[in-house]
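Running this now, will post back.
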Amino acid sequence: MDSVTQAALGAAVAAVVAGKKSSPKILLAGAALGTIPDLDVLIGYGDPVSDMVKHRGFSHSLFIMLPFSWLLAQAWQQWRPSRFSFTQLWLLIAACLITHPLLDAFTSYGTQLLWPFDISFAVSSIFIIDPLYTIPLLVVIFASLFWREKMAKLCGIGLAISTVYLAWSVIALQLIESRVEGDLAGTALENKPVFIAPTPVNTVLWRVVVLDGDTYWEGLTSLLDKDNTIDFIAKPRGEWLLNEKPKRLLMLEKFSDQFVRYQQIDDKLIVTDLRLGMAEYLPFSFAFAQESNNDEWKMLSPEKMEEKRVRPKHLPALWLRLLGNQNINANLCHIKECPDDLNSLL
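Update: finished.
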Protein backbone atom coordinates (compact mmCIF):
# COMPACT_ATOMS: atom_id res chain seq x y z
CA MET A 1 0.00 0.00 0.00
CA ASP A 2 1.04 3.65 -0.30
CA SER A 3 3.14 5.35 2.37
CA VAL A 4 0.29 7.53 3.68
CA THR A 5 -1.84 4.45 4.32
CA GLN A 6 0.99 2.57 6.01
CA ALA A 7 1.82 5.55 8.22
CA ALA A 8 -1.85 5.94 9.21
CA LEU A 9 -2.12 2.23 9.92
CA GLY A 10 1.03 2.30 12.07
CA ALA A 11 -0.20 5.30 14.04
CA ALA A 12 -3.62 3.75 14.70
CA VAL A 13 -2.12 0.41 15.72
CA ALA A 14 0.34 2.13 18.07
CA ALA A 15 -2.47 4.05 19.78
CA VAL A 16 -4.57 0.92 20.25
CA VAL A 17 -1.65 -1.06 21.72
CA ALA A 18 -0.62 1.85 23.97
CA GLY A 19 -4.15 2.21 25.30
CA LYS A 20 -4.42 4.85 28.02
CA LYS A 21 -0.75 5.72 27.50
CA SER A 22 -1.48 6.96 23.99
CA SER A 23 -0.24 10.42 23.03
CA PRO A 24 0.64 12.41 19.90
CA LYS A 25 4.21 11.14 20.29
CA ILE A 26 2.92 7.57 20.20
CA LEU A 27 1.01 8.36 17.00
CA LEU A 28 4.13 9.83 15.44
CA ALA A 29 6.27 6.87 16.49
CA GLY A 30 3.68 4.43 15.12
CA ALA A 31 3.53 6.29 11.80
CA ALA A 32 7.32 6.14 11.50
CA LEU A 33 7.43 2.45 12.39
CA GLY A 34 4.66 1.73 9.88
CA THR A 35 6.77 3.03 7.01
CA ILE A 36 10.08 1.33 7.95
CA PRO A 37 9.55 -1.86 5.88
CA ASP A 38 9.32 0.20 2.67
CA LEU A 39 12.76 1.69 3.20
CA ASP A 40 14.06 -1.26 1.18
CA VAL A 41 13.27 0.86 -1.89
CA LEU A 42 16.47 2.74 -1.08
CA ILE A 43 18.46 -0.42 -1.79
CA GLY A 44 19.65 -0.84 -5.37
CA TYR A 45 19.87 -4.44 -6.57
CA GLY A 46 21.64 -3.61 -9.83
CA ASP A 47 18.80 -3.41 -12.35
CA PRO A 48 15.10 -2.40 -12.50
CA VAL A 49 13.80 -5.98 -12.64
CA SER A 50 15.71 -7.00 -9.52
CA ASP A 51 14.60 -3.81 -7.77
CA MET A 52 10.98 -4.66 -8.56
CA VAL A 53 11.10 -8.37 -7.72
CA LYS A 54 13.11 -8.02 -4.50
CA HIS A 55 11.01 -5.17 -3.11
CA ARG A 56 8.82 -6.45 -0.27
CA GLY A 57 11.44 -9.11 0.41
CA PHE A 58 13.50 -9.35 3.58
CA SER A 59 12.12 -6.08 5.00
CA HIS A 60 8.59 -7.52 4.83
CA SER A 61 9.44 -10.92 6.29
CA LEU A 62 7.82 -11.94 9.56
CA PHE A 63 11.02 -13.82 10.34
CA ILE A 64 12.92 -10.53 10.15
CA MET A 65 10.38 -8.13 11.63
CA LEU A 66 9.91 -10.05 14.88
CA PRO A 67 13.59 -10.12 15.95
CA PHE A 68 14.09 -6.61 14.51
CA SER A 69 11.26 -5.30 16.68
CA TRP A 70 12.91 -6.94 19.71
CA LEU A 71 16.21 -5.22 18.90
CA LEU A 72 14.45 -1.87 18.47
CA ALA A 73 12.70 -2.30 21.80
CA GLN A 74 16.00 -3.14 23.49
CA ALA A 75 17.71 -0.13 21.93
CA TRP A 76 14.87 2.19 22.91
CA GLN A 77 14.86 1.01 26.50
CA GLN A 78 18.61 1.55 26.74
CA TRP A 79 18.59 4.94 25.03
CA ARG A 80 15.44 6.41 26.51
CA PRO A 81 13.56 4.49 29.20
CA SER A 82 9.80 4.87 28.77
CA ARG A 83 6.58 4.38 30.70
CA PHE A 84 6.14 1.04 28.98
CA SER A 85 7.48 -2.26 30.21
CA PHE A 86 9.81 -3.99 27.78
CA THR A 87 7.07 -6.45 26.80
CA GLN A 88 4.60 -3.65 26.09
CA LEU A 89 7.16 -1.72 24.08
CA TRP A 90 8.12 -4.78 22.06
CA LEU A 91 4.45 -5.55 21.37
CA LEU A 92 3.83 -1.98 20.19
CA ILE A 93 6.84 -1.95 17.86
CA ALA A 94 6.16 -5.45 16.53
CA ALA A 95 2.49 -4.67 15.86
CA CYS A 96 3.35 -1.52 13.87
CA LEU A 97 6.01 -3.32 11.82
CA ILE A 98 4.11 -6.54 11.13
CA THR A 99 0.78 -4.98 10.13
CA HIS A 100 2.61 -3.27 7.24
CA PRO A 101 3.51 -6.45 5.29
CA LEU A 102 0.25 -8.13 6.28
CA LEU A 103 -1.68 -5.30 4.62
CA ASP A 104 0.63 -5.38 1.59
CA ALA A 105 -0.19 -9.07 1.14
CA PHE A 106 -3.76 -8.12 0.19
CA THR A 107 -2.53 -6.26 -2.92
CA SER A 108 -1.52 -7.78 -6.28
CA TYR A 109 2.19 -7.01 -6.08
CA GLY A 110 3.30 -9.94 -3.97
CA THR A 111 4.80 -9.89 -0.47
CA GLN A 112 7.43 -12.33 0.81
CA LEU A 113 6.08 -12.78 4.31
CA LEU A 114 8.20 -15.89 4.86
CA TRP A 115 11.50 -14.67 3.37
CA PRO A 116 14.09 -16.27 2.97
CA PHE A 117 11.69 -18.95 1.75
CA ASP A 118 10.77 -18.19 -1.85
CA ILE A 119 7.04 -17.85 -1.24
CA SER A 120 5.08 -14.77 -2.27
CA PHE A 121 1.63 -13.85 -0.95
CA ALA A 122 -0.77 -11.75 -3.04
CA VAL A 123 -4.48 -11.90 -2.22
CA SER A 124 -5.23 -9.24 -4.89
CA SER A 125 -8.34 -7.96 -3.16
CA ILE A 126 -7.38 -4.29 -2.78
CA PHE A 127 -5.61 -1.74 -4.97
CA ILE A 128 -2.33 -0.25 -3.70
CA ILE A 129 -4.17 3.06 -3.12
CA ASP A 130 -7.71 2.87 -1.80
CA PRO A 131 -9.18 5.92 -0.01
CA LEU A 132 -11.99 3.88 1.53
CA TYR A 133 -9.40 1.99 3.55
CA THR A 134 -7.22 4.99 4.38
CA ILE A 135 -9.71 7.78 5.12
CA PRO A 136 -11.25 6.20 8.27
CA LEU A 137 -7.75 5.91 9.74
CA LEU A 138 -6.86 9.51 8.90
CA VAL A 139 -10.14 10.85 10.27
CA VAL A 140 -9.84 9.15 13.66
CA ILE A 141 -6.17 10.07 14.00
CA PHE A 142 -6.99 13.71 13.35
CA ALA A 143 -9.96 13.59 15.74
CA SER A 144 -7.88 11.94 18.46
CA LEU A 145 -5.56 14.95 18.52
CA PHE A 146 -8.50 16.98 19.87
CA TRP A 147 -9.91 14.25 22.15
CA ARG A 148 -6.70 12.83 23.51
CA GLU A 149 -8.38 11.06 26.39
CA LYS A 150 -10.24 9.00 23.76
CA MET A 151 -7.26 8.52 21.45
CA ALA A 152 -6.99 4.74 21.78
CA LYS A 153 -10.75 4.23 21.48
CA LEU A 154 -11.07 6.46 18.41
CA CYS A 155 -8.12 4.79 16.69
CA GLY A 156 -9.63 1.41 17.52
CA ILE A 157 -12.87 2.43 15.81
CA GLY A 158 -11.01 3.62 12.71
CA LEU A 159 -8.96 0.44 12.63
CA ALA A 160 -12.11 -1.65 12.93
CA ILE A 161 -13.79 0.20 10.05
CA SER A 162 -10.76 -0.21 7.79
CA THR A 163 -10.45 -3.88 8.73
CA VAL A 164 -14.12 -4.48 7.89
CA TYR A 165 -13.53 -2.82 4.52
CA LEU A 166 -10.50 -5.05 3.94
CA ALA A 167 -12.62 -8.09 4.78
CA TRP A 168 -15.25 -6.81 2.33
CA SER A 169 -12.60 -6.65 -0.39
CA VAL A 170 -11.92 -10.37 0.08
CA ILE A 171 -15.65 -11.13 -0.13
CA ALA A 172 -15.92 -9.00 -3.28
CA LEU A 173 -12.99 -10.89 -4.81
CA GLN A 174 -14.69 -14.21 -4.09
CA LEU A 175 -17.89 -12.97 -5.74
CA ILE A 176 -15.95 -11.96 -8.84
CA GLU A 177 -14.01 -15.23 -8.89
CA SER A 178 -17.30 -17.14 -8.85
CA ARG A 179 -18.64 -14.96 -11.69
CA VAL A 180 -15.51 -15.47 -13.80
CA GLU A 181 -15.54 -19.23 -13.23
CA GLY A 182 -19.15 -19.42 -14.36
CA ASP A 183 -18.56 -17.20 -17.38
CA LEU A 184 -15.61 -19.23 -18.62
CA ALA A 185 -17.27 -22.60 -18.02
CA GLY A 186 -17.87 -24.47 -21.26
CA THR A 187 -15.50 -22.31 -23.30
CA ALA A 188 -11.98 -22.89 -24.53
CA LEU A 189 -10.76 -20.63 -21.71
CA GLU A 190 -12.09 -22.89 -18.98
CA ASN A 191 -9.28 -23.92 -16.60
CA LYS A 192 -6.86 -21.45 -18.19
CA PRO A 193 -4.71 -19.30 -15.86
CA VAL A 194 -6.76 -16.36 -14.57
CA PHE A 195 -5.69 -13.20 -12.78
CA ILE A 196 -8.25 -10.97 -11.05
CA ALA A 197 -7.59 -7.63 -9.37
CA PRO A 198 -9.56 -4.49 -8.48
CA THR A 199 -9.20 -1.47 -10.72
CA PRO A 200 -7.68 1.67 -9.14
CA VAL A 201 -9.09 3.04 -5.85
CA ASN A 202 -12.16 0.82 -5.56
CA THR A 203 -13.40 -2.72 -4.91
CA VAL A 204 -16.42 -2.57 -7.22
CA LEU A 205 -14.91 -2.71 -10.73
CA TRP A 206 -12.54 -5.61 -11.34
CA ARG A 207 -10.05 -6.45 -14.08
CA VAL A 208 -9.82 -10.02 -15.35
CA VAL A 209 -6.91 -11.40 -17.41
CA VAL A 210 -6.93 -14.91 -18.91
CA LEU A 211 -3.84 -16.46 -20.49
CA ASP A 212 -4.36 -18.42 -23.68
CA GLY A 213 -1.02 -19.37 -25.23
CA ASP A 214 0.29 -16.46 -27.29
CA THR A 215 -2.94 -14.52 -26.61
CA TYR A 216 -4.38 -13.05 -23.46
CA TRP A 217 -7.94 -11.95 -22.85
CA GLU A 218 -8.73 -8.89 -20.77
CA GLY A 219 -12.11 -7.79 -19.47
CA LEU A 220 -13.84 -5.68 -16.85
CA THR A 221 -16.70 -6.69 -14.60
CA SER A 222 -18.48 -4.64 -11.95
CA LEU A 223 -20.39 -5.82 -8.92
CA LEU A 224 -23.11 -3.42 -10.11
CA ASP A 225 -23.49 -5.10 -13.51
CA LYS A 226 -27.02 -6.32 -14.22
CA ASP A 227 -25.64 -8.92 -16.60
CA ASN A 228 -22.92 -11.19 -15.20
CA THR A 229 -21.57 -11.86 -18.68
CA ILE A 230 -18.01 -10.56 -18.97
CA ASP A 231 -16.89 -8.89 -22.17
CA PHE A 232 -13.32 -9.73 -23.12
CA ILE A 233 -10.98 -8.43 -25.76
CA ALA A 234 -8.22 -10.61 -27.19
CA LYS A 235 -4.72 -9.16 -27.21
CA PRO A 236 -1.47 -10.62 -28.50
CA ARG A 237 0.71 -11.95 -25.73
CA GLY A 238 3.58 -12.78 -28.04
CA GLU A 239 6.51 -15.02 -27.25
CA TRP A 240 10.18 -14.73 -26.44
CA LEU A 241 12.01 -14.57 -29.78
CA LEU A 242 15.45 -15.76 -28.67
CA ASN A 243 16.66 -19.24 -27.85
CA GLU A 244 17.67 -18.55 -24.28
CA LYS A 245 16.04 -16.54 -21.56
CA PRO A 246 18.27 -14.39 -19.36
CA LYS A 247 18.20 -14.88 -15.61
CA ARG A 248 16.37 -11.60 -14.99
CA LEU A 249 13.59 -12.60 -17.42
CA LEU A 250 13.10 -15.93 -15.65
CA MET A 251 12.95 -13.98 -12.40
CA LEU A 252 10.26 -11.66 -13.80
CA GLU A 253 8.22 -14.56 -15.20
CA LYS A 254 8.24 -16.31 -11.85
CA PHE A 255 7.42 -13.12 -9.96
CA SER A 256 4.43 -12.43 -12.22
CA ASP A 257 3.31 -16.08 -12.27
CA GLN A 258 3.83 -16.07 -16.07
CA PHE A 259 1.40 -13.18 -16.59
CA VAL A 260 3.74 -11.34 -18.95
CA ARG A 261 3.54 -10.01 -22.51
CA TYR A 262 6.39 -10.19 -25.04
CA GLN A 263 6.70 -7.51 -27.73
CA GLN A 264 9.20 -6.29 -30.27
CA ILE A 265 9.00 -2.51 -30.37
CA ASP A 266 11.35 -0.94 -32.89
CA ASP A 267 14.68 -2.65 -32.21
CA LYS A 268 14.00 -3.84 -28.66
CA LEU A 269 12.41 -6.89 -27.07
CA ILE A 270 10.03 -5.70 -24.35
CA VAL A 271 8.53 -7.79 -21.57
CA THR A 272 5.59 -6.40 -19.58
CA ASP A 273 4.03 -7.52 -16.31
CA LEU A 274 0.31 -7.89 -17.10
CA ARG A 275 -0.87 -7.92 -13.50
CA LEU A 276 -0.14 -4.34 -12.53
CA GLY A 277 -2.16 -1.67 -14.33
CA MET A 278 -4.91 -2.11 -16.90
CA ALA A 279 -5.53 -1.95 -20.65
CA GLU A 280 -2.48 -0.25 -22.20
CA TYR A 281 -1.49 1.45 -18.96
CA LEU A 282 0.89 -1.21 -17.71
CA PRO A 283 3.70 0.49 -15.80
CA PHE A 284 6.20 -2.36 -15.49
CA SER A 285 7.73 -2.92 -18.93
CA PHE A 286 11.38 -3.79 -19.45
CA ALA A 287 13.68 -4.02 -22.48
CA PHE A 288 15.77 -7.19 -22.38
CA ALA A 289 17.44 -7.26 -25.80
CA GLN A 290 18.27 -4.96 -28.71
CA GLU A 291 18.62 -5.74 -32.40
CA SER A 292 21.80 -4.59 -34.12
CA ASN A 293 22.21 -3.43 -37.74
CA ASN A 294 23.10 -6.94 -38.90
CA ASP A 295 19.88 -8.40 -37.47
CA GLU A 296 21.58 -9.93 -34.46
CA TRP A 297 20.21 -9.59 -30.96
CA LYS A 298 22.27 -8.34 -28.05
CA MET A 299 21.18 -8.95 -24.49
CA LEU A 300 20.76 -5.82 -22.39
CA SER A 301 20.86 -5.23 -18.70
CA PRO A 302 17.09 -4.78 -18.20
CA GLU A 303 15.92 -1.23 -18.88
CA LYS A 304 12.61 0.06 -17.53
CA MET A 305 10.50 1.60 -20.28
CA GLU A 306 8.75 4.94 -19.92
CA GLU A 307 5.26 4.59 -18.51
CA LYS A 308 2.15 5.64 -20.40
CA ARG A 309 0.18 8.18 -18.41
CA VAL A 310 -3.54 7.71 -17.91
CA ARG A 311 -5.49 10.17 -20.04
CA PRO A 312 -8.03 12.16 -18.02
CA LYS A 313 -10.59 11.75 -20.80
CA HIS A 314 -10.76 8.01 -20.00
CA LEU A 315 -11.68 8.50 -16.34
CA PRO A 316 -15.39 9.29 -16.87
CA ALA A 317 -15.79 6.13 -18.93
CA LEU A 318 -14.10 4.10 -16.20
CA TRP A 319 -16.46 5.61 -13.63
CA LEU A 320 -19.51 4.78 -15.75
CA ARG A 321 -18.22 1.24 -16.16
CA LEU A 322 -17.85 0.94 -12.38
CA LEU A 323 -21.51 1.95 -12.00
CA GLY A 324 -22.53 -0.97 -14.19
CA ASN A 325 -22.81 0.69 -17.61
CA GLN A 326 -21.88 -2.29 -19.77
CA ASN A 327 -22.31 -0.28 -22.96
CA ILE A 328 -18.77 0.94 -22.29
CA ASN A 329 -17.72 -2.52 -23.49
CA ALA A 330 -19.41 -2.12 -26.87
CA ASN A 331 -16.07 -2.41 -28.66
CA LEU A 332 -15.25 -5.71 -26.95
CA CYS A 333 -16.16 -9.23 -27.93
CA HIS A 334 -17.45 -11.85 -25.50
CA ILE A 335 -15.72 -15.20 -25.84
CA LYS A 336 -19.00 -17.02 -26.43
CA GLU A 337 -19.88 -14.76 -29.37
CA CYS A 338 -16.52 -14.22 -31.06
CA PRO A 339 -16.09 -15.10 -34.73
CA ASP A 340 -13.85 -18.04 -35.57
CA ASP A 341 -11.00 -15.85 -36.77
CA LEU A 342 -10.45 -14.62 -33.19
CA ASN A 343 -8.28 -17.48 -31.99
CA SER A 344 -10.93 -20.11 -32.88
CA LEU A 345 -11.95 -20.34 -29.26
CA LEU A 346 -15.05 -22.47 -29.76
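Residues 330-346 have pLDDT under 50 and may be disordered. More later if anyone needs it.
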